[in-house]
Amino acid sequence: xxxxxxxxxxxxxxxxxxxxSQTLEDQIYDAVDAFVANPSKSAFIxxxxxxxxxxxxxxxPDEKLxxxxxxxxxxxxEMNNNLxxxxxxxxxxxxxxxxxxxxxxxxxxEYCLKPLGTLYTKTGNYTLAENIIKKYIFIAEKQKDxxxxxxxxxxxxxxxxxxxxxxxxIDLLQKASKNKEVTSLQNKKIKExxxxxxxxxxxxxNANSLIQSQTDSNDYQSLKTKSFLALQNNNFTEAISYFAKxxxxxxxxxxxxxxxxxxxxxxxxxxxxxxxxLNSERKLLNQALKTLLPLExxxxxxxxxxxxxxxxxxxxxxxxxxxxxxxxxxxxxYDLSFYxxxxxxxxxxxQESLIIQQFEDRKRTEQCLNTFWITxxxxxxxxxxxKAFLYAERSTNVILxxxxxxxxxxxxxxxxxxxxxxxxxxxxxxxxxxxxxxxxITGENPNEIENxxxxxxxxxxxxxxxxxxxxxQFKTEIExxxxxxxxxxxxxxxxAQLVYFFWGNQSVYQFQVSDNKMVWNxxxxxxxxxxxxxxxxxxxxxxxxxxxxxxxxxxxxFELFDALHFSDLEKNxxxxxxxxxxxxxxxxxALVTQKTTSKNYTEIPFLVRQNKLAxxxxxxxxxxxxxxxxxxxxxxxxxxxxxxxxxxxxxKQEAKALIPFKAKLFMNEKAxxxxxxxxxxxxxxxxxxxxxxSGSFSEPATLVFYDDLMLLNELYALQDCHPQLVxxxxxxxxxxxxxxxxxxxxxxxxFQYVGAENILFSLWKINxxxxxxxxxxxxxxxxxxxxxxxxxxxxxxxxxxxxDIVNAKKSPYYWSAFVYYGAVDSDENYNLYYLIFGLIxxxxxxxIYGRTSRLFKGKxx
Length: 861
Hints:
The longest helix has 29 residues, at 351-379. It contains 35 helices and 16 strands. The radius of gyration is 31 Å and the shape is globular. A hairpin with a 3-residue loop joins strand 13 and strand 14 (743-745). The strands form 4 sheets. Strands 7-6-8-12-15-16 form a 6-stranded mixed β-sheet, sandwiched between helices. A 5-stranded mixed β-sheet has the order 3-2-1-4-5, with helices on both faces. By secondary structure, it is an alpha/beta fold. The model is unreliable at 1-8, 830-838 and 851-861 (pLDDT under 50). 60% of the residues lie in helices and 9% in strands. Among the domains are: 414-473; 504-825, no CATH class.
């Protein structure tokens, strides 16, 4: 045994021998004092051992407060030694113990909440950072602690700056600057942060004015800002000079962490990037990496096991990838960034935080695809197509896929307490967010807003800890990387072809998959393509736009069809489309496949007449979504809104289509939100004929019931709603705020999030008459075909061929709004599955019969 280990065991023995002579509170404080006096690694190990014992014993408020202080000291040590994840855990324990037990007589803001908020910001957990900072601002307001209120606003502005919300950051800083008790030091910090945010908005004149207005403009932050402003004026020499002075000022302070030093090198490297001095940039980036990983001895790529959740790694690896000329090395650097990003995402529990992190992953993915594309053009090696496809899929709908994985785990392990708790916490979290949004929209009851924020912070921390337990338990069961061979197999079963899009900043990458073959196309987001795409989408803004200029519409539609390489598709074949970016808002059915001068819509060669279309959000969902036996229990909600400006005249006609299915119908005043919540989990098909909104930048999408609105987050909270089909016969149910990689934050997506297998929804403000006609066609066909996929296709064909409908009403504005996201469950495919199962059953019976015959051969029965 080594002496160090023996010494540690001796200390543990010594500790246990004297505990009986002291009160528990004294023991905790003695342990804290001993550690503070000698904050070494061995002392920290001993403190951890003691903390585990103390946490099982504390009962009185004084004992609990002592444990709070111990955990805060632990957190401080861990934070200063780059153990961010451990530090967050220690501070969270301290805060939960303090808040739950309503403790006092300790500066919980200074010693716990401030560092916790800083750690959340550093590790990209911006939602929790916002919540915890707002919490201590609220506490400080109650205590009338103006200094803490001001520092809270400054720290909150840093959160908004980090996610690119510079204007909100500026508003907060200006509010803080007006506080009469702002100190000179705080005022200086406010001006520094204001200048950085003005630079973020490219308002360089305001940034420069702020720097010049400071009495001491030769400190680190001011000099660094001057350096950046000099770069904007293409004055590289001046920029380097200012940054050199900034470095001197920085190291004089002696109050910095390894992370601060690494960020300094990264910022200096960006100056050399501006001059295209790649060697100097590379040296500084590697210096930053060594600062964060002092124990890494190799000069090559660091080991993944050495990395930890730290945003600075992302900046370093991305920058090294960008300047790397070797394509393999470039991808290796990006892979390290993806690895660190995944570590960060493990601690994120809100959709908002995950979307922010995913936004950066998408930019990184585009760079990887660009690299693969260039290499593929040179080599014509098809393996690069597969690699590119897998990278695209990995960064598509990450949140929806994770939620789907969790539901699968819950089905496989229905009695697991952690999975049950997770489900409960997710529901509570979304319910609280819904309440918060409603209060923020109305501007009512600010005290209740704070109360909800506090509950939300507590639940989010609990959910994060619960997620960590589940990750450890089910690491091997969590969804693995998509299999290309499985994709080919599924396409073959569906007798289909797949068109998969990845929307980047500069290009759209398209993958056409069929018959064990993948074709890869790059479409530049510029010129005629960009113009045609936007024009096509805007044709559906109003019912009159297409009818007013049919020839322009068909011309635009055909040019878009051609630019999207749809002319390469096989005709008369089931076609699965996985859109991305603005393509989420394209009604592909309405694309025109040939040049035409016809103004008669029944004669125009729309894509719907050439191929049967289904959509999916990602390839993983497409593979998993297989046809199932229909249950055909239907519930319908038809508020109608009679005798009002919002009346849906044809909604009653639409409701009649459900009668043959013996559907349970909630009409007029019975179509309430309460009835929906009560019945949504009890039926296999949900049909909603109502109004919907796509939301805005500040407000979420909504669904309208007779008595109330249902916001997006309230739908997210429906954890027991898993219908086979959701029919959203309402306006704009597929429209919402577009998030890179995650699609539109729409009502349709909310139903996918909670587990709907198949969805039929609208892309724009649909016409009431056309909607009723299409839905009638849909259910009439579904009664015969037992196929959602076929019924959607046939409903549109029947609409176009209906001689009772005038030509103007046959504009694609009326019939192409509805898109079907789901399985190809057509008769021939659906029956094939049952034929296979039937044959297997017959073979098994035959084998059993054969074995039985041999057993009883020659015997009387």
